[in-house]
Amino acid sequence: MFEYILLSAPGVTEWIVILILVLVLFGAKRIPEIAQNLGKGIREFKRSMNEVQDEVTRPEPRVIKDNKPTQENQSKTDNTPNG
């Protein structure tokens, strides 16, 4: 009655056919270049994901206010008359 399509990983024969098709389409000289560029893309993607995760999980930095008067503020207060 019902036909089920089982989805699974390709077998040995399917992998051989896929590899032959890749060799025919791209050629033996281009395959290492493609693999290298794919690896670079994956590394960049992982680096970006880690940066985003660090930004999300990193606590916000605390702002410490310094109550010490600067030289500019001291000279302004020293020159004003008391009175």
Describe the protein's topology.
Blueprint: H1 12-26, H2 30-57, H3 71-79
Nutshell version of this structure?
The protein contains three helices and no strands. The chain is an all-alpha fold and 83 residues long. It starts with 11 loop residues before the first helix and ends with a helix.
Description:
With 83 residues, the chain is an all-alpha fold. It has a domain at 26-54. Helices cover 63% and strands 0% of the residues. It has three helices and no strands. It is elongated and about 80 Å long.
Q: Kindly state the number of beta strands.
A: 0
Contiguous uncertain segments of 5+ residues: none
What coarse outline follows from CA principal-axis ratios? elongated
The quaternary structure here is single chain
Kindly estimate the percentage of residues that lie in beta strands according to DSSP: under 5%
Report the order of strands and helices.
HHH
How confident is the prediction overall: mean pLDDT? 81
Question: Which key phrases capture this entry?
Answer:
mainly alpha, 3 helices, 0% strand, single chain, 83 residues, elongated
